[in-house]
Structure formats: structure tokens, C-alpha cells
């Protein structure tokens, strides 16, 4: 009796001991398992941390991984001399893309002009009206056409960091032509280092499908065949450039957002100079040089690297000659980035977290116009830097006339947007704007109070104003205007 009780007792002890050991093994295995699947032990805690404080939770999560990745992935790289504003483990190795091959004899190769074939002038004029550019010429050019390497010699031999952040490209379009939209996409795919190109997001701002059905299902099926992730997003109703860009920005999974227009062509080495500046300092916002693609012939024409962005007191964006003092600041090196007061707005790269930190765009702005100055002022007054990189070239089809309709009338929309810019960002300098546009004084001011209190992006903006004031911008600007 006593013996059997002892045996049962021994069995219990053996059983409990092995269970304890088993439990410890499980705990050890789970502790060292990776969180990337989301199932590892400790991952749940990070997730719940994110719910209360998303940015901090995510940063910690990345930091932990960064150290591990750094040890495993990048230890063979010599990173001395490079400064990174990201955890090294979050950055990607990259290699330049090979040059897109030239196909002599095909129309528009190497950026050459396309002439209308004899007898097709009437057709050409008819098609021109659809997009306000020579659609016949564009349709005859390969989606993969070759372009000249337009960079300065000093740019071609420049050393860029061996590690860079990834970027998602956001492109808003409205009734865009198939050939210009897809040539934009192909030029990105062909000329961006693949590891740095996270995805391309095409935002269809309510294109009118009764006349343009190819932008529907056909586009969605086409992009599935591309070698890079390309997604098509759609606004429910016409929302304008700003709200459509915000819709795209929300879906971005890369570290940097690069906004591009829907009828551009990226040239060789266009992306590296933009990402290199941001890799070193996430508060830098960088624009390429915007070259000209002729609306008549689709010829690629290089723009000057000696102009920067300014504005007049009607708050129209204008190009001005780069002043001598900025040339001197750059030590006379034309490959160095230019600190520009404002940007044209269509094409720029910005760190995603910085974009969110400064309050993104002013969501109360309609359709188009003024948002480029708003973003420029926002960047300068929120402690950032706005630059043009002379080593990055992207061609843009400039048009004489806008092909877009403006619900509410073009003048009303742009003026209303500009009045918002003046009221939010210009302190007492706003008076210059309202002196130039007396009809806007009062009427917009009174309704402005309402916008102001309703817009969350303006709350961020006001924080920036308090901290930095307009002085960061005005000295450079007033001189550019003289
Ligand atoms: Mn455009």
C-alpha cells in the first residue's frame, strides 16, 4: 500500500518536472522566433502598443529589427563616411539600372521629335484636343523609348550611399491618355533601382469612363503584368489633386513618397539623387529638375539648372534665376542641391513620416492651384528644407491650355486656395496678397475661420507657425522678387 502510494508520488514528480521543462522550452523557442510573421511571442505586445501610440510602437519594432538586420545583412558593407537618418537595417542595397537600349529608326527614340506623317494633319489636330498634346505623336512612340543621358558630367560620377530608403510613387491622373500614363510608369520601372522601388500607386481621380473606358478594367489588368507592384486606386467622385494624392499617400508602404505627374518620363539616374538626400536627413524634400517634353513633338528638351521656384504677390508660382549667393553657398558646384524657396509642385520626394508630421496637405483646397506654394511654405516653416537636385531629371509634358474642367470655375478655385495660403502661412505678409487681390479680403477671411477650426492638417500647420514663423522663408524670397 505504502509502496504503491510512493510510486504514484514519484510518477507525479517526474511528470510535473518534465512539464516544467517543456513549458520552458516553448517559452525559449517563442522568444527567439521572428515577429515578421506576426505570430512570435512579444509581437502581440508591440501590436497592442501600436494601438495606443502608433508611431512609437512602430519605431521600436523597426529598431529591434534594424539591429538584427544590420548585423546579418549589411555587415560586409563599409559604411564609414555615410550618415543615415534611418536605422541602417531599414535601408536597402541597390544597384543602378542598366541604360534603356536605343532602337534607332523607331519614332521618338533618344527623345527625338516626332513629325506628323503627311496627310495626317487633320487627324493630329482632332486628337490634340483630347488632352491638349499631340496624342498621335505620343501613341506612335514606344512606351519604353530611350532618352539621352542629360545629366552634368559631375552627376554621372557621383557616389551615392550604398544603402537607401525605399520609395512608393504616387501618380494622380484624370482622363489621362494611355500612352503618356504608361510611358510614365515604364520610365519609372526601367530607370529606378529595383530594390528601392516599393510600388507605384496610380490614383484615378474620377476619369469620365463614358468616353475613356481603357482607364478601367483594361488598366487594372495591364498593371498586373508589370514586373513591379502597381496598384490602381480610384476616388469616388472628382476630388482634385490634393485629396487624390492624400488617398494615394495613405496606401504607401515605402519609406519615402515620390509624387509624380501622369505624363512624365524619368531619365537615367533620376531617383538616386532624391533618395540620397533624404537618406541623410528625413526633413529634406527634394524635387528633380523638370525638363520639357514638347506637347507638339514629344521631343525631350533639357531645362536650365540655374532657375529656382519663387512667387509673385498674386501667389502665382514663378521661376526665377538662382541668385549669386546660392551659387556661392554651393561653392560654385552645379551638381550640389539648390535650396529653393518654392516648388512647382508636380514632382517631389518626401519622407512619409515627415509628410505626416507636418500635417500633409491642406485638405480644404480644391482641384488644383496654390497647393505647391502651400506645401513649400509648410516645409520651410516646419523645420524642413526644400531642394532641387540638379542631378535628377524628369521630363514633363507642358501644355499651353489645361485640358481639365474645374467644378466651380478655375479662377474661383485657384484664388480661394491662394487666400488660404496667405492666411495660414504668411503672417503680416498676407496684406501684400490682399492688396493685390482686394476682392478676396473679407469674404474669404470670414469663412476661413471655419476652415481653420475644422481642418486637422491646419492644426499641424499652426504648430509649425508658432515654432518657426515666416522668417525662415521671406528673406530668400523677397530678394528673388527684386
Ligand atoms: Mn502636368
Would you kindly provide a brief summary of this structure?
The chain is α/β, with parallel strands linked by helices and 482 residues long. It is built from 18 helices and 14 strands.
Describe the protein in words.
With 482 residues, the protein is an alpha/beta fold. It has a domain at 124-397: Spore Coat Polysaccharide Biosynthesis Protein SpsA, Chain A (Alpha-Beta Complex). It contains 18 helices and 14 strands. The protein has helices spanning 2-32, 43-52, 54-73, 121-131, 135-140, 153-156, 178-191, 217-224, 240-250, 271-280, 324-329, 352-357, 371-381, 410-425, 430-436, 443-454, 456-468, 474-481; strands at 92-93, 163-164, 167-173, 197-204, 230-234, 256-260, 264-266, 284-293, 300-301, 307-311, 317-321, 338-339, 348-351, 385-397. The protein has a 5-stranded mixed sheet, with helices on both faces. Strands 7, 8, 9, 12 and 14 form a 5-stranded mixed sheet that branches. A two-stranded antiparallel ribbon has the order 1-2. Helix 7 links the parallel strand 3 (167-173) and strand 4 (197-204). Helix 2 (43-52) packs antiparallel against helix 3, helix 13 runs parallel beside helix 14 (410-425) and helix 14 crosses helix 16. The radius of gyration is 27 Å and the shape is globular. Residues 34-68, 445-457 and 468-482 have low confidence and may be disordered. Manganese (II) ion is lined by residues 261, 263, 346, 396. Residues 261, 263, 346, 396 line the site of manganese (II) ion.
